[in-house]
Write a structure and sequence with these properties.
Elements lengths: L1 H44 L7 H34 L5 H7 L2 H4 L2 H12 L4 H8 L10 H25 L3 H9 L4 H29 L3 H6 L8 H10 L4 H25 L21 H31 L8 H32 L4 H11 L7 H12 L9 H39 L3 H29 L4 H5 L7 H10 L3 H28 L2 H8 L19
Helix pairs in contact: 1-12, 1-14, 1-16, 2-7, 2-9, 2-13, 5-7, 5-13, 5-20, 7-9, 9-12, 11-12, 12-16, 13-21, 14-15, 14-17, 14-18, 14-21, 16-17, 17-18, 18-21, 20-21
């Protein structure tokens, strides 16, 4: 009876925690966005200036740079993905793995690398001057496009590589037996996959570029290169025009909601094709022209992606001697934001994932919970920040809560990635070990330790590392709230760049890079060290650690 009551109390507490996580997510995303929405309508009803010519220019530039960035990234990813899919060379797996590096790279560090290569004093400018050509000016639309393509070319390439991997090996064998080569092979094999994957990749990159703030802040070239998010920042931070900021936030929210709906509609997972899932061996592209094309795509992509990263590392190492004293307190603030954001994001993701599993007997309810976790795609961070600012202003000084607000919004922004990693792991653990755990009567911590944790620990560590790394490198919401004497490390790097203190900015950016990747690796290694096998090794001979009998399905790796 006592055990039954304890199990019932634990189930009740878990259910309440799951519903609390759902309420927190809805309040953080839709609640804050709704506050901005109400103030935007209030500004219209109150006779405030409805829409300015500068706002129209900001909207036009936002759409133009996002469309061009998405088009260039998607088009350039086609030959790169094709070369990686059909070539086998030394270091190929490492090259594919490094395509995820720009995702973890702090935006301001990548911008510093882009400036070091393409700026007026960069490598390309020096080469142009040596040839008697004018030095390029990257500030404005060219710089914004360069930075966005640097971030999004790897994303589009990974999407297309997944599409190639989904094509059954039997189809490639049949194409080889039919003698398909060149254009005929591309039309029968590559083009159907690209026709399904490219629209979703384009829409996703378009949405990412619309909500990009740090790139426009650092590389925008004045009024003609201002995005909607940059206009919101200027209206709130410089003019303190709450009505205009709320109105711009309303426009940004409507645009992002429409783009998010379009992205979800175009990114539906294609049903798996029947096949033996054997290893794909491609023998196409053996001609000289095909080999030269693939080599050119690989070399060009390697230089385009590798040079800015290498330049940022080299300049950062040289600039460590000029590291300002305020860099260490700023690093401490970034660390607090990262840890707080990762903790909150994991709590929300686990709560939503658990609730979705509880509601799977009602598919519509489970899908609604998953959609709530993806709500950050529709509510951009600046709109959430604007809504929280308006909600907190009558109660307290929002600038005094800069770090907690930044951590909370970054947790919401990382939630879609965390939920996408944690929910499938929980479903797999329940499908594989749930029936056996029920037969053994495992409940509570015993069930968590034996049936759930072995499958959950790696995705949980990866999700926490991603959330911490993204929050540590954030240069968005913190720019709205941070006081002049309390910047985080990304904001300090941006201020040093704005003051043309390039050596100090490079040294601080290297510290930021080490912090972001260090947090990611620390969470991943922590998840590995908490495995049952590692715990048994540590406790061997001391009567400590996990007992082998607690792991269900011993001999199998969940």
């Amino acid at each position: 009876m006592t055990r039954f009551r304890a199990d019932a109390a634990a189930a009740l507490a878990g259910g309440l925690a799951s519903w609390a996580a759902l309420a927190a997510v809805l309040a953080l995303s839709f609640g804050s966005a709704g506050m901005a929405l109400l103030h935007g309508w209030g500004a219209l009803d109150g006779g405030a200036p409805a829409w300015r010519a500068s706002d129209t220019r900001a909207l036009e530039f936002t759409l133009r740079q996002a469309a061009l960035s998405a088009l260039i990234s998607t088009a350039a990813a086609v030959p790169l993905a094709r070369a990686l899919a059909r070539r086998r060379f030394w270091g190929r797996d490492a090259a594919i793995a490094l395509l995820g590096a720009p995702f973890l790279l702090p935006t301001i560090v990548a911008i510093l690398g882009v400036v070091a290569v393409w700026g007026r004093s960069g490598l390309v400018a020096d080469a142009a001057a040596a040839l008697g050509l004018p030095r390029p000016d990257i500030y404005g639309l060219p710089g914004v496009l360069l930075a966005h393509v640097f971030f999004n070319l790897p994303l589009a390439t990974r999407i297309f590589l997944q599409g190639y991997a989904a094509i059954p090996a039997e189809r490639w064998r049949l194409a080889e037996q039919l003698g398909l080569e060149g254009r005929a092979l591309f039309a029968r094999m590559d083009w159907p996959m690209l026709r399904e994957s490219a629209p979703g990749a384009f829409a996703l990159i378009f949405l990412v570029c619309v909500t990009s703030f740090a790139v426009a802040l650092a590389l925008g070239g004045g009024p003609r290169a201002t995005t909607l998010e940059l206009a919101i920042y200027q209206a709130l931070r410089f003019d303190f025009d709450l009505a205009r900021a709320a109105l711009l936030a309303l426009a940004q929210l409507g645009l992002c909601m429409a783009l998010a709906a379009l992205t979800l509609a175009l990114s539906r997972a294609r049903p798996p094709e029947p096949g033996l899932r054997a290893r794909i061996v491609r023998r196409d592209g053996r001609g000289r022209a095909a080999r030269a094309t693939d080599a050119a795509a690989l070399i060009a992509a390697g230089l385009f992606l590798g040079l800015p990263l290498g330049a940022a590392l080299a300049r950062g190492a040289a600039g460590l001697a000029a590291l300002p004293a305020q860099a260490w307190p700023a690093a401490g603030r970034s660390l607090m934001v990262a840890l707080g954001s990762a903790t909150l994001c994991m709590a929300l993701a686990l709560g939503l994932a658990t609730l979705a599993l509880r509601l799977e007997r009602r598919p519509w309810a489970a899908r609604a919970v998953e959609a709530a976790g993806l709500s950050a795609l529709a509510a951009p961070p600046f709109v959430m920040g604007m809504g929280l600012f308006l909600a907190l202003r009558p109660l307290t000084d929002p600038f005094a809560l800069a770090l907690p607000i930044t951590a909370a919004i970054n947790a919401a922004m990382a939630l879609p990635f965390a939920l996408g990693l944690i929910l499938p792991a929980l479903r797999r653990a329940r499908a594989e070990y749930g029936p056996l755990a029920d037969q053994l009567g495992l409940r509570g911590l015993a069930r968590l330790r034996a049936a759930t944790w072995p499958a959950l620990r790696r995705p949980l560590g990866l999700a926490a590392g991603l959330a911490a790394a993204l929050a540590a490198g954030d240069l968005g919401v913190i720019a709205l709230f941070a006081p002049a004497d309390g910047p985080t490390l990304p904001l300090l790097v941006q201020r040093l760049m704005a003051g043309y203190r390039w050596d100090a900015a490079a040294g601080a950016s290297l510290l930021l890079l080490a912090l972001s990747f260090g947090l990611f690796l620390a969470f991943d290694l922590a998840a590995r060290s908490l495995s049952p096998r590692a715990a048994r090794r540590r406790g061997r001979g001391r009567g400590l650690g996990w007992r082998p009998g607690w792991r269900l399905g011993r001999g199998r790796r969940p």
